[in-house]
Amino acid sequence: MTTAKRDTYTPESLLAVAVQVFNERGYDGTSMEHLSKAAGISKSSIYHHVAGKEELLRRAVSRALDGLFAILDEEQAREGRAVDRLEHVTRRMVGVLTSELPYVTLLLRVRGNTETERWAMDRRRDFDHRVADLLKAAIAEGDLREDVEARLATRLLFGMINSLVEWFRPDARGADGAEIADAVVQLAFRGLRIED
């Protein structure tokens, strides 16, 4: 029976289980025993593939962060007016969040208690600053209102997007990721754009 379990086990399926357990119990509240029970494999099988739960955390938050940073490398995020690039980044952030929901949820819940969590928070801050710079550039180019402080506008934009982890469920009936991205862009940029 152990062989059959091991045959169906993959590092990717273990990562998915770990993310689910981390999100349910919290990273600090999760033991290797919890992970082995949830995965249906022995602790030694887990250690055969990863050094421990912190490696699983790093892999999980890396998946979310890599998805977010990849957006900034897309042509639409690098070329054109800053406001158009910002809208593209906003739309794509919603896409990454909805497609990688468990991983982004975990990223948003790290608190800095471990080296991996501090690393993830630093990378997330770097991403946030790069998006904030785009917003500032759009204000400087005269496309967004300057009477709303850029830092506040950035926090509100991230707050709207990040709140999706609290209520969006891909398997529930309702708006899909593209519809949500459209709504976020409409709500955020109608209020921020300078009216002609």
UniProtKB/TrEMBL annotation:
<dbReference type="Pfam" id="PF00440">
    <property type="entry name" value="TetR_N"/>
</dbReference>
<dbReference type="Pfam" id="PF17932">
    <property type="entry name" value="TetR_C_24"/>
</dbReference>
<feature type="domain" description="HTH tetR-type">
    <location>
        <begin position="8"/>
        <end position="68"/>
    </location>
</feature>
<dbReference type="InterPro" id="IPR009057">
    <property type="entry name" value="Homeodomain-like_sf"/>
</dbReference>
<dbReference type="InterPro" id="IPR001647">
    <property type="entry name" value="HTH_TetR"/>
</dbReference>
<feature type="DNA-binding region" description="H-T-H motif">
    <location>
        <begin position="31"/>
        <end position="50"/>
    </location>
</feature>
<protein>
    <submittedName>
        <fullName>DNA-binding transcriptional regulator, AcrR family</fullName>
    </submittedName>
</protein>
<keyword id="KW-0805">Transcription regulation</keyword>
<dbReference type="InterPro" id="IPR036271">
    <property type="entry name" value="Tet_transcr_reg_TetR-rel_C_sf"/>
</dbReference>
<dbReference type="GO" id="GO:0003700">
    <property type="term" value="F:DNA-binding transcription factor activity"/>
</dbReference>
<keyword id="KW-0804">Transcription</keyword>
<dbReference type="InterPro" id="IPR050109">
    <property type="entry name" value="HTH-type_TetR-like_transc_reg"/>
</dbReference>
<dbReference type="InterPro" id="IPR041490">
    <property type="entry name" value="KstR2_TetR_C"/>
</dbReference>
<keyword id="KW-0238">DNA-binding</keyword>
<dbReference type="GO" id="GO:0000976">
    <property type="term" value="F:transcription cis-regulatory region binding"/>
</dbReference>
